[in-house]
Amino acid sequence: MMLVIILAYLGGLLTIASPCILPVLPFVFARSDQPFVRTGLPLLAGMALTFTLFATLAAVGGGWVVAANQYGRGVALVLMAVFGITLLFPRLAERVMHPLVNAGNSLSNRVAPGQPAGPGASFLLGIATGLLWAPCAGPILGLVLTGAALQGANVGSTLLLLSYAAGAATSLALALLIGGKVFSAMKRSLGVGEWIRRILGAGMLLGVVAISFGLDTGVLARLSTASTGGIEQALVKRLSPDSTTANAPAPASVVKTSDDDTIPTLTDAGVMPSLSGATQWLNSPPLTAESLKGKVVLVDFWTYSCINCLRSLPYVKAWAEKYRDQGLVVIGVHAPEFAFERDVNNVTKEAKKLGVTYPVAIDNDYSIWRAFNNQYWPAHYFIDASGHIRYEHFGEGDYAQSERVIQELLRQAGAKNVNSGISTVSASGVEQAASGQNDISPETYLGYMRAQNFASGEVAGDKPADYQKPSALPLDSWGLEGNWTIGGENITLNRPNGRIVYQFHARDLHLVLGPGAEGKPVRFKVTIDGQAPGSVHGSDIAPDGSGIVTEQRLYQLIRQSTGSGEHTFSIEFEDPGVNAYAFTFG
Fold it and tell me: Does residue 21 form part of some domain?
């Protein structure tokens, strides 16, 4: 946990190098000529606390939180515009502030230019600035926000968001301290304090205009990804623990593999948490921790559009069948990542298609997820016959070791003649093992909440817009062509013949897709490097690249013999209504 807090703090520090911070800089530097402890520090504290509060609510709340924040931003914009005008016109400032001065100094000594401001007024100004601040969702903030959404409202998620905001406030504080000294020196040597205030006022008004037109979350967000995204990704890799190699809530995932079949060290991680949070059960009546006493239990957290879960599924199914009569109970806990995975009919259909016959707990509220303090898909928890967690494994790979754990726990439970062989599975399509490459393109979400490396211009969130295919695509970048609506979780095609392009490096390419609201099938055509895929077509398309989106799931579109080189992927949808969620690679 401490490593993730440090990572969040460092991500916040990097915001000073991000163009997304530009719109709020004039508001911060408007007080640079005043005492830092009385003005700058309360302002930054208000900014950090407000961002933390609204980010926490937005991560775990619903649309009402977003709407409330929009109203708050509107009020804050008006306040900032008035403040900017008062910096431009000192006499107007005197008139505006006169009634407040007469009313008392409960919150501020005076906010008019040239007068010292109290900490209360600066704190309120910081609150307004926090409402306006829309930091760019780079890899680190994406990790923090997604984790908060999955873990729910708790001290941990709020602490991570506060750490991010504290990092940003620290970098701004350093800039403010330096800026204050520069400001004072200019006043002493040049006597241009009045002009400086007017320039700051004009800067504040420009910041208001930029935020009003969405430039802070559009153009500046893309510039920020280019300027700090690489640094943030490096920090994620450097500071994250090994467990982040699983398919964590972070955008990127790496597969862990090992041929070692020795029995890992078994520990006691405590009593198995309750399964009572399941909203429904498939293939079984509800199971409880008490009813499972005397059995060896494998709890598998998965979701049916997760490529890492799908590739580990053949092993889980093999273990469930092989050791069932010797006392093993496998329980799949289906914790959805996307909204369509909350539909029990979808889960039931896909589980049947995938050959999942063991009990599945539907964890739509993440109750079991939180009870286990889980963070990953897939995640495997091995419980002994006394009901204690003895071993945990996150992500793909290490299957031989995991099977040795099952065998050992069965022997400890008194099972006789436990089969000591290691299972060999034969999988195809999306369940086939990954290539094992470590330098493949990262998992890429298309909705604006977690999107990265978008190359088709400014994002018009939650409303139809025309996008142009980029003339050039850097590696791991993607773009759109046609009329699309980019939502928080997915993108939706509004007119026929829309296209998605991606420059990738991997053996396999998958895309999570779904038909429109009415469920009408959507025809599409795939090309790779401008040609029909032919022999490198995935299991969900024909050699000529043709395919149909008929259900909400992960589609395998490209399967090459190797993952060498860069390739340009293109998918064109002949019909409107398709929803696209995320690219994954292997």
Answer: yes
